[in-house]
Design a protein that fits this description.
alpha/beta, 3 helices, 6 strands
């Protein structure tokens, strides 16, 4: 988990958002659309307090479906999303634009345009 390693280095908290059924304890869940169907992700219900600042971290932003669902899930429990950070952006697939439309700042290290 990239986010866990970053949280360790920054001496901050870490909250995993995982596919349905992977986490113990009481969770909150959101369904989201994929290119090939529907899936669900969840996080611990008590992991973030309303108003708490959060940075969403993942390795790749492509179509943005998973990241968009994570933003909606975090906001559902009251998180203040400071930014969404990714190692790789595939801008032609539109994920960055989906998050920016939700008023989320997007930061990436590398962008791969085109074929």
């Amino acid at each position: 988990m990239l986010g866990g390693a970053m949280a360790h280095q920054l001496s901050t908290g870490f909250v995993p958002i995982r596919k349905k059924g992977k986490l113990p304890h009481e969770t909150v869940r959101i369904a989201y659309s994929l290119e090939y169907g529907v899936d669900e992700m969840e996080m611990h219900k008590d992991a973030i307090k309303p108003g708490e600042k959060v940075i969403l971290i993942d390795d790749l932003i492509a179509t943005g479906g998973t990241a968009e669902a994570a933003v909606k899930l975090l906001r559902q429990i009251g998180a203040d999303i400071v930014a969404a950070c990714f190692v790789i952006d595939l801008p032609e697939l539109g994920g960055r634009k989906k998050l920016e439309a939700l008023d989320v700042e997007v930061r990436t290290l590398v962008s791969f345009d085109g074929h």
